[in-house]
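Deliverable D5.2: sample structural annotation.
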Amino acid sequence: MKWTSALAIFTLFWVMSAFVVMPFGVRTADEVGAPKVPGQADSAPANFSARRILLRTTALALVSFGLYYFNYINEWLTVDMLDFTQ
């Protein structure tokens, strides 16, 4: 696999991981007990931490891509194994 292909696939895993990680650990101002800013949506997060989300996303993407890459090298699961029409 070329490094550019690996980078593109890792980027896809990273974006997918970001959407998986974002909802976890989010608390609204009502749940935290923080005062609301006028015009703030009731569902707006009170404790948003971009650094925490980036770290969790990167960790999940590295694990997911690692599993994908080792499967690519070792052929643990192939398309032929997924043929259920037989």
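Annotation notes: The helical segments are 3-21, 29-32, 50-74. Residues 50-74 form the longest helix (25 residues).
The annotation will be released with the project's public dataset once the embargo ends.
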